[in-house]
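Mods, move this if it's the wrong board.
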Amino acid sequence: MADLKLLDRVFYLITQHFIVTGQAPHYTELAKALSLSVEESRRLLHELMEAPCPAYPSGTYPGWFHPGTDYIVSFAPFNNLPTQYRITIDGQQKWFAQ
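Not the wrong board. Structure tokens:
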């Protein structure tokens, strides 16, 4: 298992990227922000998505990839694909919820 501080940093970067851009980052963007190799960033992203999270019924964080890819589809509370659940903040509507 990766260092928890590093996983926390990955979580923070993903959340901030969603807030600023309205989209999930690709793991290559995370690699650059963390000064890691692309493969290490991809591995950390998978580790974060599979991390135990007892607060949720599934037991893991409620986020997932598009099937067969490393592309983030959902990362609570955000969804990278359009849904009927739009989030509007200060008149801006660039987010979708799970």
